[in-house]
């Protein structure tokens, strides 16, 4: 079973018509995140493709399991799903404790902090998000340099 192809299909359906903060198709974001994870870690690629599916669509973890998505990838996606009642420090702690979730979140941050993408934002949004992403990197024990390294590695 090709879990990556299944995850890509689920992501394409879940994010159909959605746009990112720069006004571009959201599916491009999740595919870039998948390209930024360790290429030897297929479950990280699956989780990367699905990292916003529960948060941004009506798809549930149970439905992902029914589609054959591995439990470890689903666990990562659940940890990456923001919940209103979970304080940010708890959110990042749960991600830090799960190697796949941490790998995916760092890849997500790499795409979100891409200078070309940031250039498409208003000055106010860019300043707000730069602060937010810096906090996220620190909470995960990394820094902005991690994002640049991931983008460079994926573009080789």
Provide the fold topology.
Blueprint: H1 3-14, H2 26-36, H3 42-50, H4 53-56, H5 61-66, H6 71-80, H7 88-96, H8 99-112, H9 115-118, H10 123-139, H11 144-154
Helix pairs in contact: 1-3, 2-3, 2-8, 3-6, 3-8, 6-8, 8-11
Assign an overall shape.
Answer: globular
Q: What is the overall number of helices?
A: 11
The top level CATH class name: Mainly Alpha
CATH topology: Hypothetical protein af1432
Specify Rg, calculated over alpha carbons: 15 Å
Indicate the percent of residues in helices. 55-70%
Give me the oligomer status. Answer: single chain
Q: Encode the helix/strand succession as letters.
A: HHHHHHHHHHH
Annotation, overall tally of beta strands: 0
| Relevant CATH superfamily | Hypothetical protein af1432
What distance lies between the first and last C-alpha atoms, to the nearest angstrom?
Answer: 28 Å
Structural class: mainly alpha
Which architecture name does CATH use? Orthogonal Bundle
Uncertain regions spanning at least 5 consecutive residues: none
Protein name: Phosphohydrolase
Pfam families: HD_4
